[in-house]
Structures are given as C-alpha cells and as structure tokens.
Amino acid sequence: MKCAQKKERFTLSVEYVNFGTAGVKVSRMALGLGFRGQFDRGEAEKVIHKAFDAGINLIDCANVYGFMDDRRNIGSSEEVLGQALKGRRDDVVITSKVFSPIGSGPNDFGASRYHIMREVERSLTRLDTDHIDVYIFHGVDDMALFEEQFRTMETLIQQGKIRYVGVSNFQAWQVMEALQVQKGINAQPLIAVQNPYSLMNRTQEDELFPMLRETGVGMMAYSPLGVGLLSGTYSPGQVPDDSTLWGSRRKNQIALYMRGRAARVIAAVDEVAEDLGITMAQVAIAWVMSHREVTVAISGADTVDQITDVAGALELKLPEDTITKLDEISYGMRAVLDGGPLDEDVED
User: Fold this and answer.
1) How many CA atoms lie within 13 A of 41 on its CB side?
2) What separation, in Å, do the N-terminal and C-terminal C-alpha atoms of the chain show?
3) Which of 278, 266, 269 has its CA nearest to residue 309?
C-alpha cells in the first residue's frame, strides 16, 4: 500500500505499511541506532538525515545504545537522535527500549515499574520529546512480573508518554502469554516483536512466524545482514580488515562463519547480487522484506554510504526464482552470531 507523504519530507515511491496491529504507517525499513562502528556524533546525525531523505520514517533506538559500547556513553544515541529530529519530530516514528543494564545498582535493569518509570523519563529527556511512539521491552524479565510491567506500560500510554508497546527477544509462547496478560488487565495489546532474522538465521520461521500470522502482531527483523556477514564486506578465504567488526572484536570467530553452509549462503548472495547488478546488502535485506510476516527490517548502518546502499532495497523486489534459490541454500540455517557454534556447518 502506498501512503502519501509530504513531498518535502518523504519519497512517494517508498511503501508505508501498518505497524503490526496499529494504524500508524511506517517504512518497510528502519534505521537502528546501535552505532557499533560509528564514533562521531556529527557523522551519526548525517546518517539519520540520509535515512529521512531516503523515505525511512522509523528510527529504532534504546536507552542503552551509545557510541563505542561504552557505559559512559549509554544513551548517547538517543541524544543524537533528539538533535537530528529538530523540526521533523512529527514526521518520524521513534521506538526505544528498556530492560538492559544501565548501571550496577539493583534497580538498574529489568522491567520493574520502578525501572521503567525512571528510564522512560531519562529517554524522553535525551530524545528532547514529550513521547516515544513505541516503547519496547528489550528482553524477557521474570514472567511472574508480566502484569506489573504491562500495567506500567498502560499507565505510560494513559499519561501520553508512549503510544504503543512492543517486545524484543521474546519467543512465540512468551508473546502469547504477554497478550493474554494484557487482555486480562484491559491494556492495549503489544503491536510488534523485534527479533533477529536473516538468511544466516531462520529460527523465527519455526514458531514465531505462525504466531504472527495468527495474531497480526508485526515483526521488526534485526540483524538482516547476519551481523554484517552478508554486507559484502567479508569473503571466504580473505582476512577481514581490522577496522571491521569481524576483523577486530570478532576476528577469532570469523572462521566459524566462512565454512560449510554459512559460506555457501554468503557466496549465493554474492552471486545473486552480481547477476542483478545490485549489492549483497540489498539482496539480503530485500529477501528478509519479501516475507509477509516481516513488517520492518532494521538496518544497522553506521555511515552515510551504508544507509545509502541498504536503502536501495526499499524499492527492490527480488524475482521469485531468486527468492526460491536463496530459500533453498539457506534452509534450516541456525547461525548463532554471538560467538557460539554454528548448528549448520556440516559439509552436506
């Protein structure tokens, strides 16, 4: 569905869809502000502005996101976003998250009412706004506290400090449990779940996708490039540059992902990109967005060049035979991209 936007704000050629069960319209791609490879605030702002110019109207943030993964910089991504939104706030949908540790204190993490109410105020201050459009639990706390945490979210909705609720890193059965709790307390149901999904990791297809089709809950797919492995930066048999993620912090793990089926997936994406005259990143993200269960693919672009590249996927539709080829080569992929072993590295 094409959604008319102000010509000076967003491109009319970009598709805007309902955000899960909500009526608010968002682009099929979001910009995530993890900024793991960007250390300059000025450059980060340019990335955000470039995303706006490309028609991306959904920006994904979190209270713990900051430059250089440094605790002293926790929240700095929200600060940069607040600065970049000057004069454009009403045209942008913001998500932010709460749950992850922001300090060493006993109440510096989790989904207690105490922590949520404190952190939302801090995020609003850093974002320089009076509301967050979608407030997301960044992980699963003790499920015995579901009623407390979702009552708190409903309170924030009633106060006008947030508009919608989402969850991240929840399994399908946990999403269903959350929906039941929300129904029981007459709270607005969550609209989206944010989980990893890519050609390197198709775990969500087993249980989450059927649940999404049944409930209408939307999905924000993070790591659509397999933590950068499908970006075109890395190739089997080549030592990655030490300025890259897999050439620095993960240099001891890269060999795990350059063999067996994982290597063949990377090679297949490269081949498709060459055949179609586009980039590997565009192929990988377009494949993710080709699934009807996926509402939004989140790009973790750190530079203007990267966001310019991936934004090309917004107007790209892969041929059906190409999708089938990628489906077949990646079928059953369960790559664990946190340093753990691959489930599918056999030479079958």
Assistant:
1) 13
2) 41
3) 278
What is the token pair recorded at 34? 């993890």
Phi, psi (degrees; rounded to nearest 5) at 332: 80, 5
3-state SS assignment for residue 14: coil
Q: What is the pLDDT of residues 244-296, one digit of tens each?
A: 555 455 656 666 777 778 888 999 999 999 999 999 999 999 999 999 999 99
Q: Which residues contact 260 (CB under 8 A, 6 or more apart)?
A: 342, 344, 345, 346, 347
Name the pairing type of β-strands 93-98 and 29-32.
unpaired
- In whole angstroms, give the CA distance from residue 254 to residue 240: 9
Tens-digit pLDDT profile for residues 166-203: 999 999 999 999 999 999 999 999 999 999 999 999 99
Cβ atoms of residues 93 and 298 within 8 Å: no
Structure tokens at 144: 């015995």
Cβ-in-10-Å burial (0-12, 13-18, 19+) of 335 comes to buried
**Type of residue at 189:** P
